[in-house]
Amino acid sequence: MKVNFVDLKAQYDTIRDEVDTAIQGVLDSCAFINSRSFEANFAAYIGAAHCVGVGSGTDALTLSMKGLGLGPGDEVITAANTFIATAEGISLAGATPVFVDCDPETYLIDPGKIEAAITEKTRAIAPVHLYGQPADMDPIMEIARKHDLLVIEDCAQAHGATYKGRKVGTFGHAACFSFYPGKNLGAYGDAGAVCTNDEELAGKIRMYGDHGSAVKYRHDFVGTNSRMDGIQGAVLSVKLRHLDAWSKRRNEVAARYTEGLQDVCVTPRTAVDRYHVWHLYVIQVGNRDELMKHLTDNDIACGIHYPVALPVTPAYAHLGYTAEHFPVACAGADRIVSLPMHADLTDEDVELVIGVVREVAK
Ligand SMILES: *Cc1c(COP(=O)(O)O)cnc(C)c1O
Known about the structure:
Elements: H1 8-29, H2 36-46, E1 50-54, H3 57-67, E2 75-79, H4 84-92, E3 96-100, E4 122-126, H5 137-147, E5 150-154, E6 162-163, E7 166-167, E8 174-178, E9 192-196, H6 199-208, E10 213-215, E11 218-219, H7 230-240, H8 243-261, E12 274-275, E13 281-284, H9 288-297, H10 327-332, E14 336-339, H11 347-360
Parallel strand pairs: 2-3, 2-4, 4-5, 5-8
Antiparallel strand pairs: 1-9, 6-7, 6-12, 8-9, 10-11, 13-14
Helix pairs in contact: 1-7, 2-7, 3-4, 3-6, 8-11, 9-11
The structure holds pyridoxal-5'-phosphate (PLP).
């Protein structure tokens, strides 16, 4: 039996009729560009006043930074251990990412290390709700207030996660979502969105994604082309109706993994007051390569998220960071393994994975 890391085919089989009808509706209306009805649905789901659909999560980050006026000479603090797109959003806006190490328990940006990274050039903090677990937003927002910094949340892995009962994407000045197919809420192609309560910012981001224009052929500044396709919005509106049930199933899988594995490896910790949505289930072992080979030999997919911490990845070598400054993220990068995680895993799949991990994990 093969266990997939994500299984978009199995998911499609459970929603085929709804998805096919929604896509047919777009084909019939020929409304191929823009997804205003998904934007309204998603804003309501998150509890944000505005949602602007864009072409990808990376664009959501880049256009948020630009919309907030960040650019050359500005520094934005973010996590050392995240997908490169978080840092790319900062760089593509012309600003400079400043990396901060993570907490060894949660693997989330360590708020206790943020203030030491602040300089007179710091303008913003971009926390990442990594693996589906909300970052520690109370101290992060407190530091931001104290130092007059903007906060741009990277919610690409955490659709529907909550911190003290409140959904991620409602804390910062802007919140960036990815709907890459493999994300918890995934389109059938690339898509992303920015949620914000700031009407002016929402308008600016929308203009950035539409060639600097709010009125046809009047271009107030140089923007780009980054809008959410109609077909993607239609698919996402269907999937949004299922998201909470899928998150619940992910939590069941995670709970069973933890129960079955906590005595043989380091299982992930969820901090108090957080609803984790388990985009990824990441364990730590001393014999990572051996474990991955054993999983692969048994037809169980696995991955590493992420194999190299961003401060020491070639794309950011010019910033001159060294591994000693990021002991947690850099040591963790050699020990982490992500196990299959999606809502269509069966109980048998989960038991199989646990059994195979138990055979070799140390
Ligand atoms: C996926 C992801 C992004 C980028 O999203 P794309 O839609 O692929 O551009 C940004 N940040 C994080 C943490 C991600 O996981």
